[in-house]
Amino acid sequence: MSSAKKARATYRCSECGWETAKWVGRCGECQAWGAVAEAGAVPGRTSKAGPVTTPAVPIGKVSVEESRSRSSGVPELDRVLGGGLVPGAAILLAGEPGVGKSTLLLEVAAQTARTRRRTLYITGEESASQVRMRADRTNAVHDELYLAAETDLGALLTHIEEVRPELLVIDSVQTISAPDVDGVPGGVSQVKEVAAALIRVAKTRNISTVLVGHVTKDGSIAGPRVLEHVVDVVLHFEGDRNSRFRMLRAMKNRFGPVDEVGCFDLGSEGITAVTDPTGLFVENHAQQVAGTCVAVTMEGRRPLLAEVQSLVTMSAAEKPRRTTSGVDSSRVAMVLAVLQQHAAIRTHNKDVFVSTVGGAKINEPASDLAVAISIASALYERPAPMGTVAMGEIGLAGELRRVRDLPQRLAEAARLGFAYALVPSDRTGGAPTGPPSGRKRMVDGMQVIEVPNIGTAMSMLGFSGRVDTGHVSGDI
User: Quick one: which H or E segment has residue 246?
Assistant: First the structure.
């Protein structure tokens, strides 16, 4: 038999680039059906030892000065990155169309250029004049900011050789094509080759590189999954199109934490950092309003206050409506069931509408108590005490469970001038059996009231019992 190995066929997924030795109907990586096809025969080969780029040295002798992070000039981005832009780092920024990715990166490029660090901005989706118009509007014109419109990888590498930037922005990686690789721009093979070439240049020349990536319908990053593995940082830029508020999250970060969140305000004059975004999600009512309660949520390490509003009306339909906006509908349904079972607050024949203020999205269970208070307040048409915040997870047995980062939440509420805070007690209880009272303590001038279960909390606020009695005896 011949010593040469027979050529083996390789099958590749057209959606994510996953490869397998045999054909399968469903991709093992992205679970797409009918996307696996033969990629051609690849002859078997063995690797031989070759010259090394740099010799191996003890880890204690490796210098870290070249990898010190440098501020990008945008504080909220530095917060998410863990200090700033690291030389040689490859950053992938993804987000839905129109969310403001290009505006954010143009601001980062301008701020970096103002620190006398040369920046190269490559646009493949717009012309250079279009980017210049946006730069005039956002005051991002600087002599150290270089701009080029290119879609060819070879020409892009030539621009890098000539400009020698310290920061490179590619908008976007799906528009750049390599002439030596088969496929259309944005395809699996093209994206893999373009990303590999750009990351190789970034590492060898210590250039901070930011790649803009497209997203699919379900919000995941388009292109091969290997793109997320080879970069150092993966950022998601998100926000509601009906709101100016934008949030930047780190999904992967080799240089810092992944639980930080950056807040931005996108306007006609550009994008600005929002260091205190709480005011965007809390209404300033001149007087007490029924059906409202303020929850304290955690976005990464940052506590944010969000107002929950509820409306409860008599239902004319056989099946009452349950409509939510900004909160999880399944958790609202659970809260309604617990209120009926453990606090005698019945909404089985009423339409319930629950929403948040300012387009805030509340997903964590710590907002359950605030949702329950807003629903009960709307049902009784009686407001909760002025300046009250609530935080706590509600269990199916009616108990209130402890939430994480409670000291940080209380400190943020006290800083904003709230007078009362309802929190779970250290001893979790079951169904309400004791008197409607809780242990009280002071935190930075704010009265913190610990309650064991949902029945006790509703009784203290005067929201327990039959609706038609009109009896209210709140203890706050």
Answer: strand 245-253
Which pLDDT tens digit goes with each residue over 409-434? 999 999 888 999 999 987 544 444 43
Half-sphere exposure of 49 (CA within 13 A, CB side): 0
66 is in an annotated binding site: no
Residue 19 labelled as part of a binding site: no
Single pTM value for the model: 0.76
Fold category of 66-275 in CATH: Rossmann fold (3.40.50)
Is 189 annotated among the ligand-binding residues? Answer: no
User: Where does 280-466 sit in CATH, by number?
Assistant: 3.30.230.10
Is 48 annotated in a binding site? The answer is: no
Domain ranges of the chain: 8-41, 66-275, 280-466
Sign of CA dihedral 18, 24, 30, 32: positive
Flag whether 3 is marked binding: no
pLDDT, mean of residues 156-162 = 95
The answer to whether 294 touches 390, Cβ cutoff 8 Å, is yes
Helix axes of 188-205 and 153-163: crossing angle, nearest 10 degrees: 10
Is 100 one of the annotated binding-site residues?
A: yes
